[in-house]
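cron nightly-structures :: item 1 of 1
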Amino acid sequence: QVQLVESGGGLVQAGNSLRLSCAVSGRTFSRYAMGWFRQTPGKEREFVASIAWSGGNTYYADYADSVKGRFAISRDNAKNTVYLQMNSLKPEDTAIYYCAANTNARYGGIYLRGTEYDYWGQGTQVTVSS
């Protein structure tokens, strides 16, 4: 069983930054594809960013167009942790942010859909005031 625990959410003013963390249990974390998704009431869950193994010590990151250039996903395999650095936050970034793990990720795979992830965290609220 893999467990994910997010932290780092909160209330910030527009233009400021937050860094979300997701601590992951699991013996082969370095091979997991990791993703961040977000959801607001009444809307479907939305892809934000993902990071997946592309061979050796190389990882490939993908971003939603709405966050490209403002958000950055990274991982520390020694700490079994994935991060989402969020800069230049906007009120429309307000949502519950979820961390997810694909424990069966293939080399070079790209995982942008929630259905491709088999474990999820409980979520952390991010609120951006104008």
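cron nightly-structures :: done
The chain has a mean pLDDT of 95.
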